[in-house]
Amino acid sequence: MLHDVGNADVVLTANETHDVDVIGDAHTAVLTAKLHQAGSVGGKAFDAELFVTDTWSCDGGRWRLLAGHASPVK
Q1: Which pLDDT value is given to residue 33?
Q2: Which CATH number goes with the domain that contains 40?
Q3: C-alpha angle with apex 64: 56 to 15, nearest 5 degrees?
Q4: What's the domain range around 29?
Q5: Based on the structure, what is the number of domains in the chain?
Q6: Cα gap 1→12, rounded to integer Å
Q7: Alpha-carbon dihedral of residues 68, 45, 7, 9, nearest 10 degrees?
Q8: pLDDT at 8
Q9: In contact, 53 and 63? CB cutoff 8 Å
Q10: Which parts of the chain fold into alpha helices (H)?
Q11: Greater confidence, 3 or 72?
Q12: Could you read off the pLDDT of 8-66 as tens digits, one per residue?
């Protein structure tokens, strides 16, 4: 994922999160949502709708992503 963020061959025309739900407490949170991404990789177009789950931890007042997962919406 980090490689793709800085890759000039990856062009995003849409990167929109919706239907977001967050549960947790002061130290841990789990986010679930749908993510719409569209664009191209190396000139090849894509358009995807994904279910995402991210697990976050708060340490010293800073939230850090511990784990993330995405699966295609069927």
Answers
A1: 98
A2: 3.10.450.50
A3: 80
A4: 2-72
A5: 1
A6: 13
A7: 170
A8: 81
A9: no
A10: 2-5
A11: 72
A12: 889 999 999 999 999 999 999 999 999 999 999 999 999 999 999 999 999 999 999 99
Beta bridge partner(s), residue 22: 31
Residue 7: its pLDDT value, please?
Answer: 79
E-strand spans in 1-74? 10-24, 28-41, 44-59, 62-72
d(CA 66, CA 29): 10
| 74 pLDDT more than 90 | no
Phi, psi torsion values for 16, nearest 5 degrees: -120, 125
Please name the amino acid found at residue 27. H
End-to-end CA distance of the chain: 22
